[in-house]
Design goal:
By secondary structure, the chain is α/β, with parallel strands linked by helices. It has helices at residues 24-33, 52-56, 61-74, 91-110, 141-152, 169-175, 217-235, 261-279, 293-309, and strands spanning 3-7, 43-46, 79-80, 86-87, 116-119, 158-162, 181-188, 206-211, 239-244, 283-287. It has a single domain, classed as Histone deacetylase domain (Arginase, Chain A, 3-Layer(aba) Sandwich).
Length: 311
Amino acid sequence: MTTLLISHSDCLDHDTSPGHPESPDRLRAVMRALEADEFRTLRREEAPVATDGQILRAHPAEILRYIATASEQAGDGYARIDADTIVSRGSELAARRAAGAVCRAVEAVARGEARNAFCAVRPPGHHAESVRPMGFCLYNNVAIGALEARALHGMARVAVVDFDVHHGNGTQELFEADATLFYASCHQSPLYPGTGMAGETGVGNIVNVPLAEGSGGAALLRAISDRIIPALEAFQPDLLMISAGFDAHENDPLAGLNVATEDFESATDLLCATAERLCGGRVVSTLEGGYNLKDLAASAAGHVRSLMRHG
């Protein structure tokens, strides 16, 4: 059993325009960090392209057509989906690689080819609602993977834990009416997108732990250990997925939760240990936010270091 790293250079071709925080340099920084000698034993694969059928489990056909058309119409420039979300000619393929990576990671973990996996991909996905790309996100990668796990791999109950600094409104919207899916988020509040209040509980399958600006890593870890892990234990997942955003970092330019680099590794240790008790250690993680390149790279490296310890 090993840890699997899945990525693809096509994810660099999602060009969001000069100065946009969700830039190709984010993925370059993460992949450079994972070239260090300590990661030499990582099994590495290129992400496949998600099929229409895989994406259609989470999004209707008109969204696939909309994203493909926007990317095509961008030509040699850019097309704007909303104030924050910009696409280029390469965006539609990049988004399919990102979703395909998560589906392949789920397959590998389900088949016992790997104990756990990290998908180093972009664009991110957790803000993408079923019928609305938004917040830098086109397809909801983690939700597509969760629905794939349930449909094809016999995993009847799938949990997603999200420690991105922003609430994953899209994942919540896709999960909230389905008691066989679980979503938990600890995030800064108030902050974009304005969702994720503690009272948003779906059908008892949603756990939101809003944290005040400046709360710090100790509060993040308490949210996971005291609120999210007990809920996971009650839910009893067959697979644990992680929306791994690193924009809660103390140096991130888009938020102010004040989490230290090492706290992300500790958070991952808590979740992997929980997965070992509940679902045979099966964990699939995918990159979400993180916009200070140096600290994104260091935080993602710590996250993968923890996955490898538990792999």
